[in-house]
Specification:
Layout: E1 9-12, H1 18-29, E2 33-38, H2 42-54, E3 58-63, H3 69-83, E4 88-91, H4 107-135, E5 138-143, H5 159-177, E6 182-189, H6 195-200, H7 203-211, H8 225-232, H9 234-237, E7 244-247
Parallel strand pairs: 1-2, 1-4, 2-3, 4-5, 5-6, 6-7
Helix pairs in contact: 1-2, 1-8, 3-4, 4-5
Length: 254
């Protein structure tokens, strides 16, 4: 039933590594036309684009800092120009940024965590919704986190709430834009082994977090792909909007 994704125009932000890279490649296997966004990792993004093409999809590599509005506007406009439309926006870009104790967080750090994980999602949704309204519909899939609804690892007192904002935004946009033919849903990953964890989590912390997962292991980026494809497919989830799918090995039961 995922055949309906063939030829769809998809933009995945933060697609050069980790979950975003796996998701972009997954859309490629479905025959989609994929905008592979990156900020700094151009070589990795080109490899993802090559994987999309090898799987039978089309790909366009798009660079920009999502926290800078003109650059994010350029990324989304580039995807629309490349494919002639935009059917699916996957707001995946985000990061813990650093594990900092709440009372030690300085203003620049606070502002950047919020800009990267929350503010830019607002902007991306605004821009995509304008295009969706012009063309008669579309789909947004946001990446939130298990940390949005339960306490995450150490030093994430700002990251978790920033993701909670995204989850709340998902519900509001789903309600407000349903009549326009737009569906808005989210995926909440648990502890997944990605470059984000390599940068921000020690080996000992990773081992401890993995031990708490009922299914007995940390997640891998490929474990998340099915949820994104499911929510992007009208054939599979056409009557689902405002929902969040938890993919965490049983670590959160909500």
């Amino acid at each position: 039933m995922l055949d309906d994704l063939k030829g769809k125009a998809v933009l995945v932000t933060g697609a050069s590594t980790g979950i975003g890279a796996a998701v972009a490649a997954g859309f490629g296997r479905c025959g989609a036309r994929v905008g592979v966004h990156y900020n700094k990792s151009r070589e990795a993004a080109e490899e993802v684009a090559a994987a999309v093409r090898a799987a039978g999809g089309e790909a366009r590599v798009l660079q920009g800092d999502v926290t800078v509005r003109p650059e994010l506007e350029r990324v989304i406009a580039g995807a629309i120009e490349a494919f002639g439309r935009l059917d699916v926006l996957v707001n995946n870009a985000g990061d813990v940024v650093g594990r900092v104790a709440f009372d030690e967080a300085e203003d620049d750090f606070i502002d950047f965590v919020i800009a990267l994980n929350a503010r830019q999602v607002v902007t991306a949704c605004q821009l995509a919704l304008r295009q969706f309204e012009r063309q008669g519909g579309g789909t947004i899939v946001n990446t939130t986190s298990v940390a949005a609804r339960q306490v995450g690892g150490p030093g994430t007192a700002l990251y978790g709430p920033s993701k909670a904002f995204v989850q709340g935004l998902t519900r509001y946009l789903a309600h407000d834009y349903a009549a326009a033919g737009v569906r808005v849903n989210a995926v909440a990953p648990g502890f997944v082994l990605t470059p984000l964890q390599e940068r921000n989590t020690t080996a000992a912390q990773q081992e401890q977090m993995a031990r708490r997962i009922p299914l007995g292991r940390a997640g891998l980026p490929k474990d998340l792909v099915g949820a994104y494809l499911f929510l992007a497919s009208d054939a599979m989830s056409g009557w689902i909007t405002g929902a969040t799918i938890d993919v965490n090995g049983g670590a959160f039961f909500g």
